[in-house]
Amino acid sequence: MKRQFASVISPVELKTIQPISSTERQGKVSDLFTIWFGSNIMMLTVITGSLAVCVFDLSFFAAAAAVIIGNLAGAVFMALHSAQGSQLGVPQMIQTRGQFGSFGALLVVVLVVVMYLGFFASNLILGGQGLHAICPPLSINGGIAIVGVLSVTATAFGYKLIHAYTRIMSWLSGTALLLCFGWILLVTGLPEAFFSHRPPTFAGFFGALSIAALWQLAYAPYVSDYSRYMPENSHQGKVFWASYWGCSLGSILPMILGVVIALCWKDDDVVTGLVTLTGGASALIVAIFSVGIAATNAMNLYCGTLCALTVGQTLAPAWSPRSGARIILALGMFTLSLLLAVAGQGNFLVNYIHFILLLLYVLIPWTAINLVDYYLVAHGSYHIPSFFRQDGGIYGYFNYRAIACYLLGILVQIPFIATDVYTGCIARAMGGADISWIVGLMVVCPVYYLMSRGIRASAHSPA
Question: Which single residue of 77, 224, 268, 290 could bond 130 by disulfide (Cβ 3.0 to 4.6 Å)?
């Protein structure tokens, strides 16, 4: 009881991957709107939106449609994962042991750690470039270091500070975003050919739509980490919609800004384009967006450490890591990401596109299995103590059906993949359109459900 009381009043979050008891539950559903709205309004989101023009060569209306449809579709999955946190009170990657088994889950957890490192490094690069653009005496590497230190600090304090940080950024970043649109439209002005119609290709439109959908799906492995402290009686519909609209609006608006900048600037260097197009307001706008990157990076680093701790606890089940372990791991992961950022900044856009497309292929099967299991097989009922046993308790070391479905989900996507590195035969026949993620969902969801509903139903009932 004393430890629980200390965790409530301590400015540093003491828990890491342990279950959150009812006495420790806190917060309001509206916090889920601000954390996803405030954390998405940043430079990396703007860059992602610009890909619809820079890479997929879409006109304004086609690009805006792809961005809106992709985000609204992908956010459904993101918000369904968010609703799990307040019910179970454990991190998302701990909960996935209920589908894959204690050791079977390690494959996905390790892939997710790699994902966090990639996004963290990408954000460091953009934060460093942004600070250098408004303060040339500061080198890009110096800017990277500043954003990284802010991120590590928030990660060290944990859940409460990250939520507070994003509440503030919701107002600051939202205001900066409105200032961007207002300055470009009313002061700089749009170029004459801004609304010129270029018939979109199916491959280009669907490519931009897929990137936007993946932006939302990439949150799936950690979205419930930020709802696990919510009161157990939180209305699930409200949890869903607060997460859905926070992440959708927070992503769509800056992505459309990226589309506008790409069409006005006609160059892949979107950061310089933003600085030039916003003139006298650029220093304030880029500074806010760079600080916003630190908020998002804190979330990436925080959840990356939880995943790394999950791997450690699987191998040493008696270990119950606390805040000290989170801070030490965060410093180690920050150092690794810093090296990646410094090494990869010269070819950022190409590396980033390849990275997010790779995520698409490995995340889709996992999110399908997790959601089908939670909502259709287990109906939200799991035996939490089994999550923390090395033998997996009632879930075992390995769930070979889930692992087989996961691998199947990756394999069925291969003919539909369209990248610079590899293009599948069906994608080539479709003119380069990549619909692999839709195929993955359509195959994995019914296959996993049919394989699991009779066999796993009894196993999900608490002992």
Answer: 290
| Encoded amino acid at 308, one letter | A
User: 418 has which bridge partners?
Assistant: 423
Q: Would you place residue 394 in the very low, low, confident or very high pLDDT band (cuts 50, 70, 90)?
A: very high
- Chain mean pLDDT for the chain: 87
Provide the 3-class DSSP secondary structure of residue 418. Answer: strand
Alpha carbon distances (Å) from 106 to 42, 97, 215, 407: 31, 9, 23, 14
pLDDT digits (tens, 9 = 90+) for 199-235: 888 889 988 998 899 899 888 888 999 999 999 888 8
Cβ contacts of 318 within 8 Å, gap of 6 or more: none
* Tokens matching residue 124: 């460091």
Assign 366 to helix, strand or coil.
Answer: helix
| Sequence spans of domains, the chain | 26-369
- Crossing angle (nearest 10°) for helices 282-315 and 43-54: 100
Torsion over CA: 215, 217, 220, 221 (sign): negative
Give pTM, 2 decimals.
0.88
Question: Tokens standing for 354?
Answer: 């390849």
Helix 106-134, helix 282-315: angle, nearest 10: 160
Please choose, from the candidates 93, 91, 88, 122, the residue with its C-alpha nearest in 3D space to the C-alpha of residue 110. Answer: 93
DSSP code per residue over 289-332? HHHHHHHHHHHHHHHHHHHHHHHHHHHSTT----HHHHHHHHHH
Q: Which residue has the tokens 């892939």?
A: 111
pLDDT of residue 6: 42
* C-beta of residue 222 within 8 angstroms of C-beta of residue 78: no
CA–CA separation, 98 vs 84, rounded Å?
13
3-state secondary structure (DSSP) of residue 20 = coil
Give me the helix-helix angle, 202-217 and 436-460, nearest 10°.
30
What are the residue ranges of helices labelled H in 139-281?
A: 140-157, 159-183, 202-217, 236-265, 270-277
pLDDT digits (tens, 9 = 90+) for 173-183: 999 999 999 99
CATH superfamily, with its number, for domain 26-369: Hydantoin permease (1.10.4160.10)
